[in-house]
Amino acid sequence: MSFTIKQHLNSKRVHVITLQESDLDKLIFPFKKHSITSLEYKPFSRFTLAKSLDEVFEGKLSKSLVKILNDRESGTAIIEPEINNKKFDKDFLVKLSTGLAYLVGNPNFDSMTGKYYARFSVKHQDSSDSYLRKAYTNLDLHTDGTYVKEKTDWLIMTKMEEQNVNGGDSVILHLDDWEHLDELSNDPVGRQNFIWGSPKSKNIDYKVEHPVFSKDKNGKPIISYIDQFPEPQNMKQGLFLQKLSDALEESKNKISFPLPVGSTIFSNNYFWLHGRRAFKEHSGLSRELLRIRGTFF
Questions:
Q1: Which of 18, 118, 263, 279 could make an SS bond with 168 (beta carbons 3.0 to 4.6 A apart)?
Q2: One-character DSSP codes across 83-141
Q3: Range of the domain at 98
Q4: Angle, in degrees to the nearest 10, between helices 43-56 and 90-102
Q5: pTM for the whole thing?
Q6: Residue 83 lies inside a defined structural domain of this protein
Q7: SS3 call for 292
Q8: Per-residue pLDDT reduced to its tens digit, 37-87
């Protein structure tokens, strides 16, 4: 196998997949066939790109990703490509992330950008309506897709670039490691339907209803939650959400780590929550991220 898989230093649940530069070199030519515009406008081209990626790794990369993401005992892979070279630019990272996504499933339409992916920046100054871009505030633990009708089985986050960054570590928590899982997943309020909306920047003109907690096909709890978007309708719902938020943020089993530039976190969205620590203030702070989320084939 030309790529390596090892356990993350901070968690045996997280697998780190390292892609070697010599293998990435083999992708430069097939990737050049597809412009970013063609990938956006012609969905079939994304499958061709993913096939080129998988062929370089003899079909083993797709199998490894599918196995990791569907395994309740793990469920997260961090892909670290060896890209310390200017020949691997941002377009290459978009294509690599696209290829990784289409090895496991179909991305959802991202209403925020009108594409199958979103690129956004976190900067020193911000006037947005979402915690996503608030550099000096913790982005609390959450899952994605809470406010849309589409299923969101998995999530990709790729760090495209950063400058003048201190802090901003990634934070993740596996549901089964959470100290309050039994108590809160069995609370009747957590299994009620909540109303979920979203700020204007998300470009969603409807609201959805679903519980915070439900169960997977094996009867294990799964979660769909983000602190900014639920609209509690009564005292019980409001107090439950406060208790939930406090219990998540106070967990001793959160995993925190810096994500290298060019690397991708690929997680199951049902039993992994993710967030980000606040940055240290700097007038030149800038980080660009790419997000893809979708469903399994």
A1: 279
A2: --STTS-HHHHHHHHHHHHHTTEEEPPBTTTTBSSEEEEEESS---SSGGG-TTS-EEE
A3: 4-127+150-164+261-268+280-296
A4: 90
A5: 0.95
A6: yes
A7: strand
A8: 999 999 999 999 999 999 999 999 999 999 999 999 999 999 999 988 678
